[in-house]
Each structure stands twice: as structure tokens, then as C-alpha cells.
Specification:
Strand content: over 45%
Helix content: 10-25%
Number of strands: 9
Number of domains: 2
Low-confidence stretches: none
Distance between the termini: 62 Å
Order of helices and strands: HHEEEEEEEEE
Shape: globular
Largest sheet: 9 strands, antiparallel
Length: 166
């Protein structure tokens, strides 16, 4: 082996050692799993804001950066609401099935009207019993309809923090 190979091997060992040294012990992992189990289901009303981190040029409301949102999960059904600044909540969709476990809920809605179709995918990922991150992807296909300034096919991405109401 030449010196470059040895440097790579030593660097990899250093990285591997630091990664494995920070790993949790079996006891810590079991304690975390017990805590998570005590949180119960994801059911409830989760409210917060998401920041639009990607939107097409000229798309959506160009001044909108923050969107208020509410996710209601109950008995296997979900409802998703949004409110632009200064507006009341309005439903994106209500009473649709969702997938969840103790840490994560996945919502997916497809809405359409004539030539227009849009999909909302919302992931709610717990950080604690009553705190979660929201990751949102909205895609729109208006190919056969009147194209907005963004074009006829576009997407919007949002990320935010949410709290569950007690």
C-alpha cells in the first residue's frame, strides 16, 4: 500500500470510531422505546406553521412565505387545513385515511377538477410526545387547463414545526 491508501484507511477508521462511539447503548435504546410507547398514538390536533422552502418563480402568492396549518388525526381518518396570513383555516381535504405509528403519520390527498390535478403529501414526524416536524410536498398538474404564471406543472415544498393540542 502506498501512503495515500494508508491515509484513507486511517481517516475511515477515525470516522467509523467516532460514529460508533456516539451510538446509544442497548439500555438507552430500550429506555427510548419505552418512552415512545408511552406517548400513545398520533391521534389529536396538530397545529403550527410551515415555511415554503421551494416554489416556482412567480408561483403561489409571491409574498407568502409562512402558512398556518392544522392536521387532525382521529380513528384512522385525517383532515388537513391551511390558512394564509390574515385568513381563517380552510380544508385541503377532510376525512381521508392515513398511515401512522407512534412516531410518524403520512397523509396523502389527490384533488382534481377537470383538467387540474393536485397532490398534497404531508409527513408529520414526532420529536417528542406533543412536538413534531411537518414536511409537505404539493404538486400541481394543470397541463390541459389554463397555465398559471408558474407553468402548468409545478411543485411547492414546505417544512415546519407543529404542536399537538392537549
Amino acid at each position: 500500500m502506498n501512503i495515500r491508501h494508508w491515509i484513507v484507511v486511517v481517516a475511515l477508521l477515525a470516522v467509523f470510531t467516532s460514529v460508533t462511539a456516539s451510538a446509544v447503548t442497548r439500555e438507552e435504546a430500550e429506555a427510548r422505546l419505552e418512552e415512545i410507547a408511552s406517548w400513545g398514538t398520533m391521534d389529536g390536533t396538530w397545529e403550527g406553521q410551515y415555511k415554503i422552502v421551494f416554489k416556482p418563480e412567480g408561483g403561489e402568492d409571491p409574498d407568502t412565505e409562512i402558512v398556518n396549518a392544522k392536521v387532525v388525526l382521529s380513528e384512522g381518518k385525517a383532515s388537513f387545513y391551511i390558512a394564509l396570513p390574515g385568513e381563517e383555516f380552510s380544508p385541503v381535504s377532510e376525512g381521508f385515511p392515513f398511515q401512522a405509528n407512534e412516531l410518524f403519520a403520512k397523509l396523502q390527498v389527490v384533488r382534481s377538477g377537470g383538467a387540474w390535478v393536485e397532490s398534497w403529501m404531508v409527513d408529520l414526524s414526532r420529536e417528542s410526545k406533543n412536538q413534531a416536524k411537518l414536511f409537505l410536498l404539493r404538486t400541481v398538474n394543470n397541463w390541459a387547463g389554463e397555465a398559471p404564471p408558474t407553468g402548468s406543472v409545478f411543485a411547492v415544498v414546505g417544512i415546519g414545526s407543529f404542536s399537538r393540542a392537549e
